[in-house]
Amino acid sequence: MCGIVGIIGKEEAAPLIVEALRRLEYRGYDSAGVATLHDGLIDRRRAPGKLRNLGGILATDPLPGVIGIGHTRWATHGAPTESNAHPHASDRVAVVHNGIIENFRELRDELSAKGHAFVTETDTEVTVHLVTEYLRQGLDPVAAAQKAVKRFEGAFALVLMFRGDEDLLIGARKGSPLAIGYGDGEMFFGSDAFALAPFTNRVTYMEEGDLAVLRRSGATVYTVNDVAVRRPIVITQAGAALVDKGNHRHFMAKEIYEQPEVLGHTVHAYVNAITETIALPRTAIDWTAVSRLTMVACGTASLATQVAQYWFEQLARLPSGTDIASEFRYRDAVLMEKGLALFVSQSGETADTLAALRHARENGQGIASVVNVAESSIARDSDSVFPTHAGPEIGVASTKAFMCQLGVLASLAISAGVARGTITREREIELVRRLLEMPRLVGEALHQEAIVANIAQELAKARDVLFIGRGLAYPIAMEGALKLKEISYIHAEGYAAGELKHGPIALIDENVPVIVIAPYDHLFEKTISNMQEVMARGGKVVLISDRKGHDLSGDGVWMRIEIPECEPAFQPMLTAVPIQLLAYYTALAKGTDVDQPRNLAKSVTVE
Ligand code: M6R
Q1: Which residues lie below 8 Å from residue 135, measured CB to CB, with a gap of 6+?
Q2: Which of 254, 483, 540, 602 is catalytic?
Q3: pLDDT in tens, 238-247
Q4: Which of 151, 165, 399, 553 is the most interior residue, by most CB within 10 Å?
Q5: How far apart are CA 529 and CA 62, in angstroms?
Q6: pLDDT, position 241
Q7: 298 noted as active-site residue
């Protein structure tokens, strides 16, 4: 899940490569590096840490050359040091790599026995030595690359640059994405079209097993069997403008505050406000023919599917289940005939989700997806695509994408209910009206900012935090814990409130804040009983509820956050807001790196 770039250009390549890498930093920021050819020789600059460190080095020690490759790393094998940073190189070839070469140990042993000296702890270094070995045996660069790539196992994308040839880059794709960009007398490789957007909007998405030979005059693409093929050139919609933070200190804050607007865009894409009906795109699904819905995703997207399971069951009475992608793909799940598998992903590139999609297709499931990046691999591999309209999400902690996923999934569940006859026309009108109100209510929920910021000062002192909720509030409790963990580094867990007494209540004392998510609904009384059990043991409770819930919750609550009242089915869109703000302000109080928390990456493109 690194970002890779290659440029055969007309002007100095290094600054352009850094510009493209900036657009790929969401894929990892453990180290960065650039290599160019200068007078035919490979030269490189690399730096641990974020791209700005590399920028500093290049400013004092520039790298000349009109052809180059670049990399931003999320470390898999080997610590994020300069020597482990890509590009890796011999005197003959330089390589940038995204993914994992699973059989690197056996290749390393084989090449070491032939006298190759390894200087890094990475799996990638075997690619350099194997291609070098074939070049030394007399193969030309294309043949050497083709022969080497066939020996690599795992999921990877590679770009190679060769000593002495300033008109050649070779890229290969197996499992990890790689796009070719077409310029005017210039050619590009990039992990995605967004990286290439400053240079061109004409791209080819390489297919599984493809190897591409780039020269200034164009690209030749070969299949895994070395047969030259034509791959379509598409005009990408990826914008050239780098998204900025506006008036906010962090992208995460900007994205939290954009939620009313982007939820509005998303909901309006699925609702006809005039006829007060759900209006799905043309690729829509025949819900009456679906025997079972299996929703698969990772992380926050997976928690959106857990909310959606309640919706599909309650509104549409559709047998439904959710799975974490990394489990689903190996679990050998029993998949029913006429089953529909629905994949949810912000990036559309998450490796486990993509692999799960392919597994579901092989097992006869219909394939639908909810994605934020319309041209992503998951979108391209789906029969039906339901875009979220969140716009680029840069903060590693997902916020607005989650909100928009909820907007799309709610619309799908209502449409399923209408089609299956479990929602009457009157109820559809009611739900559509309430759904259209949600962007405004999300805006009102954001008004709690000052209160949340105060509470966060206290949370920042805690070592452990529990989040509890029932029904639709349970996935939000887990999302609250995930958000807090990933950006404030405070240990947090989300539990079904009813589960507390089956173990976690042993953790409760006056040092463990418990965030209770309990809007007023049919489960309110039960959650409040669990809250009392916490308070009886000295636990400090922060209650997130609406006016009625706070009025009926009794005394003893430590701190309160009020959300607006809404249609009970849509409460997760409102309870999500304070848990995002709590995580954000706690991270601010702790001084952590909000947008790029340690050890994480925005897009997880390795297994
Ligand atoms: O791009 P995806 O939605 O497929 O990503 C899934 C997870 O990696 C992602 O939601 C992750 O859990 C976030 N960092 C959570 O904030």
Answers
A1: 92, 93, 141, 144, 162
A2: 602
A3: 766 666 776 7
A4: 399
A5: 65
A6: 63
A7: no
